[in-house]
Amino acid sequence: MNEHIEHFCDVLIIGSGAAGLTLALQIAEQAKVAVLSKGPLKEGSTLYAQGGIAAVFDENDSIESHVKDTLQAGAGLCDNAAVTFTAKQAKSSMEWLIEQGVPFDQFEDKKGNKKYHLTREGGHSHRRILHAADATGKAVQTSLVEQVKKHPNITLFERYNAIDLITSKKLKTIDANAAIPNGNKVHGAYVWNRNREMVEVIRAKSVALATGGASKVYLYTSNPDVASGDGIAMAWRAGCRVANMEFNQFHPTSLYHPDAPNFLITEAMRGEGAFLKRPDGTRFMSEFDERAELAPRDIVARAIDYEMKRLGVQCVYLDISHKPKDFIIEHFPTIYAKCLSVGIDITKEAIPVVPAAHYTCGGVMTDNHGKTDIDNLYAIGEVAYTGLHGANRMASNSLLECVVYARSAAEHITQHLTSHTANVSIPAWDESQVTNSDEEVVITHNWHELRMFMWDYVGIVRTTKRLERAYRRIELLTQEIEEYYSHFHVSNNLLELRNLVQVAELIVRCAMARKESRGLHYNLDYPNTLPNSQPTVLIPANELSNNKLSTN
Protein backbone atom coordinates (compact mmCIF):
# COMPACT_ATOMS: atom_id res chain seq x y z
CA MET A 1 0.00 0.00 0.00
CA ASN A 2 1.28 3.49 -0.87
CA GLU A 3 2.46 5.75 1.94
CA HIS A 4 -0.03 8.58 2.48
CA ILE A 5 1.57 11.90 3.48
CA GLU A 6 -0.50 15.00 4.22
CA HIS A 7 0.67 18.51 4.97
CA PHE A 8 -1.53 21.20 6.52
CA CYS A 9 -1.48 24.97 6.09
CA ASP A 10 -3.81 27.96 6.00
CA VAL A 11 -2.69 29.14 2.58
CA LEU A 12 -0.97 27.09 -0.13
CA ILE A 13 0.87 29.20 -2.70
CA ILE A 14 1.83 27.30 -5.86
CA GLY A 15 4.74 29.22 -7.38
CA SER A 16 7.73 31.07 -5.94
CA GLY A 17 8.23 34.12 -8.16
CA ALA A 18 7.44 37.76 -7.42
CA ALA A 19 3.69 37.12 -7.08
CA GLY A 20 3.93 34.05 -4.87
CA LEU A 21 6.62 35.37 -2.53
CA THR A 22 4.95 38.78 -2.20
CA LEU A 23 1.71 37.07 -1.19
CA ALA A 24 3.54 34.83 1.27
CA LEU A 25 5.20 37.78 3.01
CA GLN A 26 1.97 39.78 3.07
CA ILE A 27 -0.08 37.10 4.87
CA ALA A 28 2.53 35.29 6.96
CA GLU A 29 1.80 37.32 10.09
CA GLN A 30 -1.83 36.12 10.08
CA ALA A 31 -1.55 32.64 8.56
CA LYS A 32 0.52 29.48 8.24
CA VAL A 33 1.82 29.55 4.66
CA ALA A 34 3.23 26.86 2.37
CA VAL A 35 5.09 27.88 -0.81
CA LEU A 36 5.47 25.26 -3.52
CA SER A 37 8.38 25.61 -5.94
CA LYS A 38 8.72 23.26 -8.91
CA GLY A 39 12.49 23.67 -8.97
CA PRO A 40 14.92 25.66 -6.82
CA LEU A 41 13.22 28.53 -5.00
CA LYS A 42 14.86 31.21 -7.13
CA GLU A 43 14.20 29.58 -10.50
CA GLY A 44 11.37 31.17 -12.46
CA SER A 45 10.53 33.95 -14.87
CA THR A 46 11.00 36.67 -12.24
CA LEU A 47 14.69 35.84 -11.93
CA TYR A 48 15.25 36.52 -15.64
CA ALA A 49 13.25 39.75 -15.96
CA GLN A 50 15.68 42.44 -17.03
CA GLY A 51 14.07 45.77 -17.80
CA GLY A 52 12.30 46.96 -14.67
CA ILE A 53 8.96 47.89 -13.10
CA ALA A 54 6.68 50.74 -14.14
CA ALA A 55 5.48 53.24 -11.52
CA VAL A 56 4.96 57.01 -11.42
CA PHE A 57 7.85 58.52 -9.44
CA ASP A 58 8.67 61.49 -11.68
CA GLU A 59 6.84 64.74 -10.81
CA ASN A 60 6.35 65.37 -14.54
CA ASP A 61 4.61 62.02 -14.95
CA SER A 62 1.10 61.05 -13.80
CA ILE A 63 -1.07 58.05 -13.02
CA GLU A 64 -3.40 59.20 -15.78
CA SER A 65 -0.53 59.03 -18.26
CA HIS A 66 0.44 55.53 -17.10
CA VAL A 67 -3.19 54.45 -17.55
CA LYS A 68 -3.41 56.03 -21.01
CA ASP A 69 -0.19 54.37 -22.21
CA THR A 70 -1.31 50.97 -20.92
CA LEU A 71 -4.71 51.25 -22.56
CA GLN A 72 -3.11 52.23 -25.87
CA ALA A 73 -0.66 49.31 -25.74
CA GLY A 74 -3.54 46.95 -24.92
CA ALA A 75 -5.15 47.72 -28.30
CA GLY A 76 -8.64 48.37 -26.97
CA LEU A 77 -9.05 45.21 -24.88
CA CYS A 78 -7.77 46.36 -21.49
CA ASP A 79 -10.20 46.60 -18.60
CA ASN A 80 -10.11 50.29 -17.66
CA ALA A 81 -10.87 49.62 -14.00
CA ALA A 82 -8.06 47.04 -13.73
CA VAL A 83 -5.57 49.37 -15.41
CA THR A 84 -6.50 52.29 -13.14
CA PHE A 85 -6.38 50.06 -10.05
CA THR A 86 -2.89 48.83 -10.95
CA ALA A 87 -1.47 52.25 -11.81
CA LYS A 88 -2.79 53.74 -8.56
CA GLN A 89 -1.22 50.95 -6.50
CA ALA A 90 2.10 51.04 -8.35
CA LYS A 91 4.09 53.50 -6.25
CA SER A 92 3.12 52.04 -2.87
CA SER A 93 3.90 48.56 -4.20
CA MET A 94 7.37 49.68 -5.29
CA GLU A 95 7.91 51.34 -1.91
CA TRP A 96 7.06 47.99 -0.30
CA LEU A 97 9.65 46.26 -2.51
CA ILE A 98 12.20 48.87 -1.49
CA GLU A 99 11.40 48.06 2.16
CA GLN A 100 12.16 44.41 1.38
CA GLY A 101 15.62 45.43 0.23
CA VAL A 102 15.28 45.62 -3.56
CA PRO A 103 18.21 47.85 -4.66
CA PHE A 104 16.71 49.95 -7.45
CA ASP A 105 19.30 52.17 -9.16
CA GLN A 106 19.67 55.69 -7.76
CA PHE A 107 21.57 58.86 -8.63
CA GLU A 108 22.29 62.24 -7.05
CA ASP A 109 20.58 65.29 -8.53
CA LYS A 110 22.20 68.71 -8.77
CA LYS A 111 21.21 69.46 -5.18
CA GLY A 112 22.79 66.27 -3.89
CA ASN A 113 19.49 64.50 -3.27
CA LYS A 114 19.20 60.76 -3.93
CA LYS A 115 16.60 59.89 -6.56
CA TYR A 116 15.64 56.71 -8.34
CA HIS A 117 16.93 56.39 -11.89
CA LEU A 118 14.00 55.97 -14.25
CA THR A 119 14.37 54.55 -17.73
CA ARG A 120 11.88 54.44 -20.60
CA GLU A 121 10.63 51.50 -22.63
CA GLY A 122 8.39 50.93 -25.65
CA GLY A 123 4.85 52.27 -25.26
CA HIS A 124 5.67 54.58 -22.34
CA SER A 125 5.36 58.32 -22.84
CA HIS A 126 7.56 59.10 -19.81
CA ARG A 127 10.54 57.70 -17.99
CA ARG A 128 8.85 55.65 -15.27
CA ILE A 129 10.76 52.34 -15.14
CA LEU A 130 12.51 51.59 -11.86
CA HIS A 131 15.30 49.12 -12.41
CA ALA A 132 18.34 47.45 -10.88
CA ALA A 133 20.79 47.84 -13.76
CA ASP A 134 19.59 45.28 -16.36
CA ALA A 135 18.81 42.52 -13.85
CA THR A 136 15.76 43.87 -12.02
CA GLY A 137 14.04 40.50 -11.73
CA LYS A 138 17.11 38.97 -10.12
CA ALA A 139 17.21 41.80 -7.58
CA VAL A 140 13.52 41.37 -6.78
CA GLN A 141 13.69 37.57 -6.54
CA THR A 142 16.86 37.55 -4.42
CA SER A 143 15.47 40.12 -1.98
CA LEU A 144 12.11 38.35 -1.57
CA VAL A 145 13.71 34.91 -1.14
CA GLU A 146 15.93 36.34 1.58
CA GLN A 147 12.89 37.69 3.45
CA VAL A 148 10.81 34.53 2.99
CA LYS A 149 13.54 32.27 4.35
CA LYS A 150 13.60 34.31 7.57
CA HIS A 151 9.90 34.00 8.32
CA PRO A 152 8.87 31.26 10.79
CA ASN A 153 5.30 31.00 9.40
CA ILE A 154 6.42 30.18 5.85
CA THR A 155 7.28 26.58 4.91
CA LEU A 156 9.09 26.10 1.62
CA PHE A 157 8.53 23.01 -0.53
CA GLU A 158 11.26 22.96 -3.18
CA ARG A 159 11.20 20.50 -6.09
CA TYR A 160 7.47 19.84 -5.78
CA ASN A 161 5.10 19.72 -8.78
CA ALA A 162 1.43 20.49 -8.27
CA ILE A 163 -0.56 17.79 -10.10
CA ASP A 164 -4.18 18.86 -9.64
CA LEU A 165 -6.28 21.02 -7.36
CA ILE A 166 -8.47 19.22 -4.85
CA THR A 167 -11.95 20.73 -5.11
CA SER A 168 -15.38 19.79 -3.83
CA LYS A 169 -16.40 18.65 -7.32
CA LYS A 170 -13.26 16.53 -7.72
CA LEU A 171 -13.90 14.82 -4.38
CA LYS A 172 -17.47 14.11 -5.48
CA THR A 173 -16.21 12.39 -8.63
CA ILE A 174 -13.96 10.19 -6.50
CA ASP A 175 -16.74 9.34 -4.02
CA ALA A 176 -20.30 10.32 -4.95
CA ASN A 177 -21.48 9.59 -1.38
CA ALA A 178 -18.84 11.72 0.34
CA ALA A 179 -20.08 14.36 2.77
CA ILE A 180 -19.03 17.40 0.74
CA PRO A 181 -20.60 20.85 1.36
CA ASN A 182 -22.51 22.43 -1.51
CA GLY A 183 -20.65 24.65 -3.96
CA ASN A 184 -17.23 24.18 -5.49
CA LYS A 185 -14.43 25.03 -3.08
CA VAL A 186 -10.74 24.28 -3.19
CA HIS A 187 -9.34 22.20 -0.32
CA GLY A 188 -5.70 21.84 -1.34
CA ALA A 189 -3.71 20.03 -4.00
CA TYR A 190 -2.17 16.71 -4.93
CA VAL A 191 1.56 17.34 -5.35
CA TRP A 192 4.45 15.26 -6.59
CA ASN A 193 7.50 15.28 -4.35
CA ARG A 194 10.35 15.13 -6.86
CA ASN A 195 12.87 14.47 -4.09
CA ARG A 196 11.14 11.23 -2.98
CA GLU A 197 9.25 10.56 -6.24
CA MET A 198 5.89 10.15 -4.54
CA VAL A 199 2.53 11.94 -4.52
CA GLU A 200 1.50 13.80 -1.37
CA VAL A 201 -1.45 15.94 -0.27
CA ILE A 202 -1.29 19.53 0.92
CA ARG A 203 -4.48 20.66 2.65
CA ALA A 204 -5.22 24.38 2.74
CA LYS A 205 -8.04 26.79 3.57
CA SER A 206 -7.07 28.85 0.52
CA VAL A 207 -4.90 28.13 -2.51
CA ALA A 208 -3.18 30.74 -4.68
CA LEU A 209 -1.87 29.95 -8.15
CA ALA A 210 1.28 31.95 -8.88
CA THR A 211 2.74 29.59 -11.47
CA GLY A 212 3.61 32.09 -14.21
CA GLY A 213 2.89 31.77 -17.91
CA ALA A 214 2.97 29.15 -20.63
CA SER A 215 5.60 30.28 -23.14
CA LYS A 216 7.31 26.89 -23.00
CA VAL A 217 4.54 25.73 -25.34
CA TYR A 218 6.62 27.37 -28.09
CA LEU A 219 9.86 26.07 -29.54
CA TYR A 220 11.71 29.37 -29.04
CA THR A 221 11.13 31.21 -25.79
CA SER A 222 12.88 33.63 -23.48
CA ASN A 223 11.32 31.86 -20.50
CA PRO A 224 12.95 29.31 -18.18
CA ASP A 225 11.96 25.64 -18.38
CA VAL A 226 9.41 25.93 -15.56
CA ALA A 227 7.04 28.15 -17.60
CA SER A 228 4.77 25.31 -18.69
CA GLY A 229 1.31 26.74 -18.01
CA ASP A 230 0.68 24.51 -14.98
CA GLY A 231 -1.63 26.88 -13.11
CA ILE A 232 -3.75 27.70 -16.17
CA ALA A 233 -4.20 24.02 -16.99
CA MET A 234 -5.01 23.02 -13.40
CA ALA A 235 -7.53 25.84 -12.99
CA TRP A 236 -9.23 24.93 -16.28
CA ARG A 237 -9.48 21.26 -15.29
CA ALA A 238 -10.94 22.35 -11.94
CA GLY A 239 -13.67 24.44 -13.61
CA CYS A 240 -12.32 28.00 -13.93
CA ARG A 241 -12.87 30.21 -16.95
CA VAL A 242 -9.85 31.38 -18.90
CA ALA A 243 -9.63 34.37 -21.23
CA ASN A 244 -7.52 35.93 -24.01
CA MET A 245 -5.17 33.00 -24.46
CA GLU A 246 -4.66 33.99 -28.11
CA PHE A 247 -2.54 36.93 -27.00
CA ASN A 248 0.97 35.53 -26.63
CA GLN A 249 3.64 38.17 -26.49
CA PHE A 250 6.75 37.47 -28.52
CA HIS A 251 9.67 39.50 -27.25
CA PRO A 252 11.30 41.07 -30.29
CA THR A 253 14.89 40.65 -29.20
CA SER A 254 16.23 37.36 -27.91
CA LEU A 255 19.93 36.66 -28.47
CA TYR A 256 20.47 34.52 -31.56
CA HIS A 257 23.41 32.29 -30.67
CA PRO A 258 23.67 28.48 -30.23
CA ASP A 259 25.64 28.85 -26.98
CA ALA A 260 23.12 31.20 -25.36
CA PRO A 261 19.55 29.91 -25.87
CA ASN A 262 16.66 31.76 -24.21
CA PHE A 263 18.74 34.84 -23.36
CA LEU A 264 16.69 38.02 -23.53
CA ILE A 265 17.98 41.40 -24.71
CA THR A 266 15.96 43.87 -22.65
CA GLU A 267 13.65 46.39 -24.26
CA ALA A 268 15.37 49.01 -22.13
CA MET A 269 18.29 48.85 -24.57
CA ARG A 270 16.02 50.23 -27.29
CA GLY A 271 14.73 52.72 -24.75
CA GLU A 272 18.29 53.95 -24.29
CA GLY A 273 18.89 54.40 -28.01
CA ALA A 274 19.71 51.04 -29.62
CA PHE A 275 18.76 50.63 -33.30
CA LEU A 276 17.35 47.58 -35.08
CA LYS A 277 19.15 46.88 -38.36
CA ARG A 278 19.07 44.53 -41.30
CA PRO A 279 22.19 42.45 -42.02
CA ASP A 280 23.34 45.20 -44.41
CA GLY A 281 23.31 47.73 -41.58
CA THR A 282 20.22 49.71 -42.61
CA ARG A 283 17.50 50.55 -40.11
CA PHE A 284 13.92 49.46 -40.82
CA MET A 285 11.58 50.17 -37.87
CA SER A 286 10.57 53.64 -39.10
CA GLU A 287 9.07 51.92 -42.17
CA PHE A 288 6.61 50.10 -39.90
CA ASP A 289 5.78 52.64 -37.17
CA GLU A 290 6.51 56.31 -36.54
CA ARG A 291 7.75 55.40 -33.05
CA ALA A 292 10.44 53.24 -34.68
CA GLU A 293 12.32 51.17 -32.06
CA LEU A 294 10.03 52.47 -29.30
CA ALA A 295 6.88 51.00 -30.83
CA PRO A 296 5.02 48.37 -28.74
CA ARG A 297 6.45 44.87 -28.77
CA ASP A 298 3.87 43.30 -31.08
CA ILE A 299 4.66 45.81 -33.83
CA VAL A 300 8.41 45.38 -33.39
CA ALA A 301 8.17 41.57 -33.33
CA ARG A 302 6.05 41.45 -36.50
CA ALA A 303 8.41 43.88 -38.24
CA ILE A 304 11.39 41.68 -37.43
CA ASP A 305 9.48 38.56 -38.48
CA TYR A 306 8.52 40.24 -41.77
CA GLU A 307 12.09 41.35 -42.54
CA MET A 308 13.53 37.93 -41.72
CA LYS A 309 11.04 36.18 -44.01
CA ARG A 310 11.35 38.79 -46.77
CA LEU A 311 15.15 38.64 -46.81
CA GLY A 312 15.45 34.94 -45.97
CA VAL A 313 17.76 35.65 -43.04
CA GLN A 314 17.97 33.91 -39.69
CA CYS A 315 18.20 37.05 -37.55
CA VAL A 316 18.37 40.84 -37.51
CA TYR A 317 20.69 43.03 -35.42
CA LEU A 318 20.34 45.32 -32.42
CA ASP A 319 23.05 47.97 -32.32
CA ILE A 320 23.94 50.19 -29.37
CA SER A 321 27.65 50.45 -30.22
CA HIS A 322 27.25 54.14 -31.15
CA LYS A 323 26.80 54.92 -27.43
CA PRO A 324 29.84 55.48 -25.14
CA LYS A 325 31.44 52.27 -23.88
CA ASP A 326 31.12 53.25 -20.20
CA PHE A 327 27.43 54.06 -20.67
CA ILE A 328 26.75 50.64 -22.21
CA ILE A 329 28.61 48.67 -19.54
CA GLU A 330 27.03 50.68 -16.70
CA HIS A 331 23.46 50.30 -17.95
CA PHE A 332 23.66 46.76 -19.36
CA PRO A 333 26.32 44.85 -17.43
CA THR A 334 24.52 41.50 -17.58
CA ILE A 335 23.96 41.66 -21.34
CA TYR A 336 27.51 42.94 -21.92
CA ALA A 337 28.99 40.03 -19.95
CA LYS A 338 26.75 37.40 -21.52
CA CYS A 339 27.40 38.56 -25.08
CA LEU A 340 31.12 38.85 -24.42
CA SER A 341 31.12 35.24 -23.18
CA VAL A 342 29.98 34.11 -26.66
CA GLY A 343 32.35 36.41 -28.52
CA ILE A 344 30.17 39.49 -29.09
CA ASP A 345 31.42 42.86 -27.80
CA ILE A 346 28.29 45.03 -27.77
CA THR A 347 30.38 48.19 -27.34
CA LYS A 348 31.84 47.57 -30.81
CA GLU A 349 29.34 45.45 -32.76
CA ALA A 350 25.64 44.73 -33.17
CA ILE A 351 23.84 41.87 -31.41
CA PRO A 352 22.14 39.16 -33.52
CA VAL A 353 18.53 38.88 -32.33
CA VAL A 354 15.30 36.99 -33.11
CA PRO A 355 11.81 37.12 -31.58
CA ALA A 356 10.93 34.55 -28.91
CA ALA A 357 7.75 33.66 -27.00
CA HIS A 358 7.89 35.76 -23.88
CA TYR A 359 4.64 36.45 -22.04
CA THR A 360 1.13 35.00 -21.72
CA CYS A 361 -1.31 37.93 -21.63
CA GLY A 362 -4.35 35.74 -21.02
CA GLY A 363 -4.97 33.30 -18.23
CA VAL A 364 -7.31 32.37 -15.39
CA MET A 365 -10.08 34.94 -14.98
CA THR A 366 -9.94 36.87 -11.71
CA ASP A 367 -11.22 40.02 -10.07
CA ASN A 368 -9.07 42.74 -8.49
CA HIS A 369 -8.50 40.52 -5.44
CA GLY A 370 -7.22 37.65 -7.55
CA LYS A 371 -10.38 35.60 -6.86
CA THR A 372 -11.28 32.94 -9.43
CA ASP A 373 -14.56 31.13 -10.16
CA ILE A 374 -13.80 28.57 -7.42
CA ASP A 375 -14.25 29.54 -3.77
CA ASN A 376 -10.96 30.06 -1.89
CA LEU A 377 -8.90 29.75 -5.10
CA TYR A 378 -6.87 32.75 -6.23
CA ALA A 379 -4.63 33.40 -9.24
CA ILE A 380 -1.98 36.15 -9.31
CA GLY A 381 0.73 37.22 -11.71
CA GLU A 382 1.19 35.91 -15.24
CA VAL A 383 -1.10 32.92 -14.64
CA ALA A 384 -4.07 35.29 -14.27
CA TYR A 385 -6.20 37.32 -16.64
CA THR A 386 -7.02 40.53 -14.77
CA GLY A 387 -7.80 42.77 -17.74
CA LEU A 388 -4.61 44.80 -17.24
CA HIS A 389 -2.85 43.72 -20.43
CA GLY A 390 -5.65 43.46 -22.97
CA ALA A 391 -4.37 42.44 -26.40
CA ASN A 392 -0.78 43.35 -25.58
CA ARG A 393 1.24 43.87 -22.41
CA MET A 394 3.08 47.15 -22.09
CA ALA A 395 6.71 46.79 -21.04
CA SER A 396 7.42 46.60 -17.29
CA ASN A 397 3.79 46.17 -16.26
CA SER A 398 4.31 42.45 -15.57
CA LEU A 399 6.29 42.47 -12.33
CA LEU A 400 4.09 45.38 -11.30
CA GLU A 401 0.98 43.23 -11.74
CA CYS A 402 2.57 40.48 -9.63
CA VAL A 403 3.14 42.75 -6.64
CA VAL A 404 -0.07 44.79 -6.88
CA TYR A 405 -2.39 41.80 -7.16
CA ALA A 406 -0.48 39.73 -4.59
CA ARG A 407 -0.99 42.52 -2.05
CA SER A 408 -4.66 42.83 -2.97
CA ALA A 409 -5.18 39.05 -2.74
CA ALA A 410 -3.44 39.00 0.64
CA GLU A 411 -5.91 41.52 1.99
CA HIS A 412 -8.89 39.47 0.84
CA ILE A 413 -7.47 36.12 2.02
CA THR A 414 -6.67 37.34 5.53
CA GLN A 415 -10.13 38.88 5.89
CA HIS A 416 -11.83 35.57 5.06
CA LEU A 417 -9.58 32.92 6.66
CA THR A 418 -11.82 32.45 9.70
CA SER A 419 -14.93 31.82 7.59
CA HIS A 420 -13.72 28.55 6.07
CA THR A 421 -15.60 25.32 6.68
CA ALA A 422 -14.17 22.26 8.40
CA ASN A 423 -11.81 19.89 6.59
CA VAL A 424 -13.31 17.24 4.33
CA SER A 425 -11.98 13.76 3.85
CA ILE A 426 -9.33 13.64 1.09
CA PRO A 427 -8.43 10.21 -0.31
CA ALA A 428 -4.84 9.22 -0.93
CA TRP A 429 -3.46 9.29 -4.47
CA ASP A 430 -4.24 5.98 -6.17
CA GLU A 431 -1.24 4.42 -7.95
CA SER A 432 -2.47 0.83 -7.76
CA GLN A 433 -3.11 0.60 -11.52
CA VAL A 434 0.06 2.25 -12.87
CA THR A 435 3.58 1.06 -13.61
CA ASN A 436 6.96 2.57 -14.39
CA SER A 437 7.35 3.56 -18.02
CA ASP A 438 10.02 2.02 -20.19
CA GLU A 439 9.26 4.36 -23.13
CA GLU A 440 10.25 7.88 -22.08
CA VAL A 441 10.82 8.56 -25.79
CA VAL A 442 7.04 8.97 -26.14
CA ILE A 443 7.12 12.02 -23.89
CA THR A 444 10.22 13.44 -25.58
CA HIS A 445 8.77 13.03 -29.06
CA ASN A 446 5.36 14.49 -28.19
CA TRP A 447 7.01 17.37 -26.36
CA HIS A 448 9.08 18.35 -29.40
CA GLU A 449 6.19 17.88 -31.83
CA LEU A 450 3.89 20.12 -29.76
CA ARG A 451 6.38 22.97 -29.45
CA MET A 452 7.35 22.77 -33.12
CA PHE A 453 3.84 23.00 -34.59
CA MET A 454 2.81 25.68 -32.07
CA TRP A 455 5.76 27.77 -33.31
CA ASP A 456 5.01 27.12 -36.99
CA TYR A 457 1.20 27.36 -36.91
CA VAL A 458 0.28 29.50 -33.87
CA GLY A 459 3.20 31.95 -33.82
CA ILE A 460 3.64 35.66 -34.55
CA VAL A 461 1.58 35.50 -37.78
CA ARG A 462 -1.32 33.04 -38.09
CA THR A 463 -3.87 31.79 -40.63
CA THR A 464 -7.11 29.87 -40.17
CA LYS A 465 -5.66 26.84 -41.96
CA ARG A 466 -2.60 26.82 -39.70
CA LEU A 467 -4.79 27.03 -36.60
CA GLU A 468 -6.97 24.16 -37.81
CA ARG A 469 -3.89 22.02 -38.47
CA ALA A 470 -2.59 22.77 -34.98
CA TYR A 471 -5.94 21.87 -33.40
CA ARG A 472 -6.09 18.48 -35.14
CA ARG A 473 -2.61 17.62 -33.89
CA ILE A 474 -3.50 18.76 -30.37
CA GLU A 475 -6.49 16.39 -30.35
CA LEU A 476 -4.26 13.44 -31.26
CA LEU A 477 -1.57 14.39 -28.76
CA THR A 478 -4.13 14.83 -26.00
CA GLN A 479 -5.38 11.27 -26.50
CA GLU A 480 -1.85 9.86 -26.42
CA ILE A 481 -0.82 11.87 -23.36
CA GLU A 482 -3.95 11.05 -21.36
CA GLU A 483 -3.50 7.34 -22.14
CA TYR A 484 0.13 7.54 -21.05
CA TYR A 485 -0.83 9.53 -17.91
CA SER A 486 -3.39 6.91 -16.86
CA HIS A 487 -0.99 3.97 -17.17
CA PHE A 488 2.35 5.18 -15.80
CA HIS A 489 3.79 6.84 -12.72
CA VAL A 490 3.95 10.61 -12.93
CA SER A 491 7.17 12.48 -13.68
CA ASN A 492 8.16 16.10 -14.11
CA ASN A 493 8.20 15.87 -17.91
CA LEU A 494 4.88 14.02 -18.08
CA LEU A 495 3.11 16.53 -15.80
CA GLU A 496 4.47 19.48 -17.77
CA LEU A 497 3.58 17.91 -21.12
CA ARG A 498 0.03 17.19 -19.90
CA ASN A 499 -0.34 20.84 -18.91
CA LEU A 500 1.28 22.21 -22.06
CA VAL A 501 -1.00 20.32 -24.42
CA GLN A 502 -4.00 21.60 -22.43
CA VAL A 503 -2.76 25.17 -22.67
CA ALA A 504 -2.02 24.73 -26.39
CA GLU A 505 -5.66 23.74 -26.92
CA LEU A 506 -6.85 26.85 -25.05
CA ILE A 507 -4.55 29.10 -27.11
CA VAL A 508 -5.75 27.66 -30.41
CA ARG A 509 -9.43 27.75 -29.42
CA CYS A 510 -9.14 31.42 -28.46
CA ALA A 511 -7.20 32.21 -31.65
CA MET A 512 -9.83 30.49 -33.82
CA ALA A 513 -12.63 32.37 -32.07
CA ARG A 514 -11.11 35.81 -32.80
CA LYS A 515 -12.11 36.85 -36.32
CA GLU A 516 -9.86 39.90 -36.50
CA SER A 517 -6.24 40.99 -36.03
CA ARG A 518 -5.60 42.90 -32.83
CA GLY A 519 -2.54 43.45 -30.67
CA LEU A 520 -0.52 40.26 -30.37
CA HIS A 521 -2.95 38.21 -32.45
CA TYR A 522 -2.37 38.63 -36.18
CA ASN A 523 -4.33 36.46 -38.64
CA LEU A 524 -3.68 36.94 -42.36
CA ASP A 525 -7.26 35.79 -43.10
CA TYR A 526 -8.70 38.50 -40.83
CA PRO A 527 -6.25 41.43 -41.12
CA ASN A 528 -8.67 44.14 -40.00
CA THR A 529 -9.57 45.22 -36.49
CA LEU A 530 -13.25 44.94 -35.59
CA PRO A 531 -15.17 47.64 -33.69
CA ASN A 532 -16.36 46.90 -30.15
CA SER A 533 -14.32 43.73 -29.77
CA GLN A 534 -14.54 41.84 -26.46
CA PRO A 535 -12.20 39.52 -24.53
CA THR A 536 -12.28 35.88 -25.64
CA VAL A 537 -13.69 33.88 -22.72
CA LEU A 538 -13.62 30.09 -22.60
CA ILE A 539 -15.85 28.18 -20.17
CA PRO A 540 -15.26 24.53 -19.15
CA ALA A 541 -18.06 22.31 -20.46
CA ASN A 542 -19.24 21.35 -16.98
CA GLU A 543 -19.50 25.03 -15.99
CA LEU A 544 -21.61 26.34 -18.88
CA SER A 545 -24.81 26.36 -16.85
CA ASN A 546 -23.19 28.24 -13.97
CA ASN A 547 -21.69 31.23 -15.82
CA LYS A 548 -23.24 34.04 -17.81
CA LEU A 549 -20.20 34.80 -19.97
CA SER A 550 -19.63 32.78 -23.10
CA THR A 551 -16.93 32.37 -25.72
CA ASN A 552 -16.47 35.45 -27.89
Mind explaining what this structure looks like?
Helix content is 35%, strand content 17%. The chain is an alpha/beta fold. The chain has three domains: 6-246 and 361-419, FAD/NAD(P)-binding domain; 250-358, Alpha-Beta Complex (Flavocytochrome C3, Chain A, domain 1); 441-537, Fumarate reductase/succinate dehydrogenase flavoprotein-like, C-terminal domain (Methane Monooxygenase Hydroxylase, Chain G, domain 1, Up-down Bundle), CATH 1.20.58. Strands 1, 2, 8, 9, 10, 11 and 18 form a seven-stranded mixed sheet that branches. A four-stranded mixed sheet has the order 19-17-12-20, with helices on one face. It has a four-stranded antiparallel sheet with strand order 13-16-15-14, with helices on one face. Strand 4 (106-108) and strand 5 form a beta hairpin. Helix 1 (18-27) packs parallel to helix 5 (136-150), helix 1 runs parallel beside helix 12 and helix 4 packs across helix 12 (398-416). The radius of gyration is 23 Å and the shape is globular. The termini are far apart. 51% of the residues are buried.
